[in-house]
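#structure-requests
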Amino acid sequence: MNKVLFFLFTRGFFRSCIFILKVKSLFKKKFKKEISFYRYFKKKKNYKKKEILKIIYQPKIFIFNFPYQTKKLINKIYNYEMLYLDNQKINDGHRKVYQSKDNLNIREFNKISSYMEKFINKNISKYLQNKKLKLIKMWIVITKNLGIMKKHSHFNSDFSGVLYVRVDNNKDYKGGLKIYNVLKNIEIYNYSRKKKLFIKSINRKQSFIIKPKRNDLVIFNSYIEHSVLNKNSKIIDRISLPFDMVF
């Protein structure tokens, strides 16, 4: 059945995929959870080309360290002219989280966004059939202790990511980026400094948590649902720069 779904998906027949899974779920409930994957694409108005759909069908997460001076970046974030104004997103369901509305990619943060875009393409394009990604949006997220970001996905992009500027590295820290693995087949690419290459594994758990280190860059398919937990943190603010990219 996976081959049939793949064939229909790459040709944009998302409704047909949903119908097949609804019928299958009458006999096995596990198929019901997979419907959300195809429903995500059904809602998108700009259906992708067949070659792009083939690339994004297999969910991927890339994790590697980004060489950047975070101390200066933190100062820049706190000096951001809109940080203390009422520009936090409204009705997003998050708790104890500051999230800027502004697209930093086109303001004074365009230097880091441009550098990050080049760095990402240099490292992961060969895993995307040599396709290049363009960073279209970036914003600030500051999460307090016990802060929560509810489960969500990014609708208007192909890949999304997070640069972790300040995180809690204590052993008792129970926070992180929670990933919801609907199809139970996410490919994880962890970069090994020692071997100077990505080490691939496949995660088949229904959900799992990524605990990032400072300067970690995590990139994933935009349709992957995720949430954020910041429990038992010993730092005042956990700071990150999320962003969206398109082919």
